[in-house]
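Q: My labmate handed me this sequence with no annotations at all. I'd like to see what the chain might look like in three dimensions before we decide whether it's worth expressing. Could you predict it?
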Amino acid sequence: MSPIPSNTQLVCLVVLGLVIAWYRELHLSKNQDSELDMSQRMSAAIPVILCGQTPSIAQEVIAGLKPEIEVVHMILSPAQGVGEIPTLLRGHAPSNNANNLGTKDYSKPPQAVILGAAFGVYLSEMRAACKGDSKVPWLELDQSKSAPPIGFGYGAALVKRVKSTMAELEKEGKMGSDGVYFY
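A: Here is what I predict for the chain of 183 residues:
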């Protein structure tokens, strides 16, 4: 075998270097794109207030709503809702949120209020407390639709209905406007 001439070696090394640089750029670009997609998905979560009496069901609902919907604040009683929802809808954090099940990320105001089964009868009272500050949809549980009995799986059934209703509202351009909608 004859040795490769030095010009050919140089050309091969240059081509190899270009291939390696291209591969690294392609690989790095894919990683950055995937990190960007993840951060876009995380920042695209719709912040909401969730009203529910039962923390165990609330935790199941909160987990099931992710990553599309982020529960920033959890309301456990109608009185708490009357006191805190207006503050939250104005874009402010409530004064006492230490034991709250939500993410407590108050950097963006909530874009919807989701009511559990026990809160439907208090809807008008909570909305009245907002005195015109509500520019978000309020989702009320449609109790005429069947749901599993309260317990394991109940929260998952509600999650499916909430996500479907939120997607409809978004598609119809109703996010950002006040109204009551059944889920």
